[in-house]
Amino acid sequence: xPELPEVESLAAFLREHAVGKAIARVDVxxxxxxxxxxxxxxxxxxxxxxxxxxxxxxxxxxxxxxxGRLHLVVHLARAGWLRWKDELPLTPPRPGPKNPIALRxxxxxxxxxxxxxxxxxxxxxxxxVRDPGEVPGVADLGIDPLSPEFTPAALHALTKDxxxxxxxLLRDQKIIAGIGNAYSxxxxxxxxxxxxxxxxxxxxxxxxxxxxxxxxxxxxxVARSKGLAAGDLKSEKKxxxxxxxxxxxxxxxxxxxxxxxxxxxxxxxxxxxxxxGGKPLADRRLSRLIR
Length: 291
Fold this sequence. Notes:
Layout: H1 4-17, E1 23-28, E2 48-55, E3 58-64, E4 70-75, E5 80-85, E6 101-107, E7 112-117, E8 125-129, H2 136-139, H3 152-159, H4 166-171, H5 181-190, H6 204-225, H7 233-240, E9 259-262, E10 267-270, H8 272-275, H9 284-289
Antiparallel strand pairs: 1-6, 2-3, 3-4, 4-8, 5-7, 6-7, 9-10
Cofactor: Zn(2+)
GO molecular function, one term: DNA-(apurinic or apyrimidinic site) endonuclease activity
Organism: Actinocorallia herbida
């Protein structure tokens, strides 16, 4: 799933390649991806891309016209992506179950992008709104970890009364916006903290140390992606991950084997030596089988 660093890099890419250009046409191939109907998607035609922003994991294209501004807000979900082309086909994409293209946006110079989604479970969402705050997910977002407001004291305030595990808190978009499964694994590994640690048990000093790791990890990931084409961001993310998605491989810090805990629809990875005092965490998938 694209998280804060990838979405921030996509926003930077679009600022360079799309801002100042007008929308020639928008074709919706997967109607289920379009979550709004007023204003209609046809109102995007001839509007100029005035700016590109990020709200957590949401990408926001601000579109200007004499009639007022609109926003095309996109959430890529688990398997969605933005595929940029300097020259898009003139023919619109054909709807169909085997077509990964959900929406095509063509600019007046022939360039533009396809929003695609792999797999059968569809979650990609597109909104056309007058204000990004009209999007339910955006309106409910917590603090952005790269914002000036995200301080060590702010993080400690978020954790001190939270009875949930720190892994879950880091992934909760209503608390901290933009961190998902992958970067929460990376943050906790770098912080040498168990994913199962209860958030409210963090001392002020531990919260401050975790804050520094969060900001450092995300800032480094954004910096690594700076200047990359949209199509290269996924591979850059995989190369930069030290524990997430690397179960069975040696930990790059201590050499212990990276372990995995699986759930119904996801899993996370960690290093026992670095994070849990050498003790493997219970795999919830196996625990259900031996009850």
